[in-house]
Design a protein that fits this description.
This protein is α/β, with parallel strands linked by helices. The protein has helices at 2-19, 22-36, 48-61, 82-91, 97-105, 122-133, 164-187; strands at 41-44, 75-77, 111-116, 137-142, 155-158. α1 crosses α7, α3 runs parallel beside α7 (164-187) and α5 (97-105) runs parallel beside α6.
């Protein structure tokens, strides 16, 4: 079982290597330009993807690499807190959570990264749609062929797998690489 889990993860990452990383580089460039101009990166996702969103935000706010001491970079997650999440779910709909928070916090020129393992998270899809109306650049990390979110954001990184664990593992590798790219571009470190 354990060997199979590692082999599946490695196979998924091999497929990612084969498809290339042009979209990730373009995302990193756009996010870096936004942050340099006073903008911010907002990230959203559900479940494990929400944890990844918080994790990646922390890499920019605090630091990614222990030997690189730099100023904090502007980033936030759109899953604010349990009170906000449950109020939105009760008073409106869970499907509106990220789009509502995006409306509150986004400014023209900011960037949004939506993460959805299935590609079918309705609240992520709605946030990506809302980004268009707010002049916010939108990007996505997806799996399972991209699902309903594919084509909604300006650029997507789609992990070529249907296995949840393998998709999430590839997303965090891509996320760490993206955060390092941003850190290097913005801070020159």
């Amino acid at each position: 079982m354990f060997k199979q889990a590692f082999q599946k993860s490695i196979e998924t990452k091999q497929k990612c290597l084969q498809q290339g990383f042009t979209n990730l580089e373009t995302m990193g460039e756009a996010i870096s330009v936004s942050i340099k101009a006073g903008g911010k990166l907002m990230i959203c996702g559900n479940g494990g993807s929400a944890a990844d969103a918080q994790h990646l935000v922390a890499e920019l706010l605090i630091r990614l690499r222990p030997k690189v001491d730099r100023a904090p970079l502007a980033a936030m997650t759109l899953a604010q807190d349990t009170s906000t999440i449950t109020a939105c779910a009760n008073d409106y709909s869970f499907d509106q959570l990220f789009a509502r928070n995006l409306k509150a916090f986004a400014r023209s020129g900011d960037c949004l990264l939506g993460i959805s393992t299935s590609g079918n998270s309705e609240n992520v899809r709605r946030a990506l749609e809302e980004a268009k109306t707010l002049n916010v650049k939108s990007f996505s990390f997806l799996g399972s062929g991209g699902g309903a979110c594919l084509g909604v954001s300006e650029l997507s990184f789609v992990v070529p797998s249907d296995d949840t664990a393998s998709i999430q593992e590839a997303h965090i590798v891509a996320g760490h690489a993206l955060m390092q790219y941003i850190e290097e571009k913005v801070c020159g470190v």
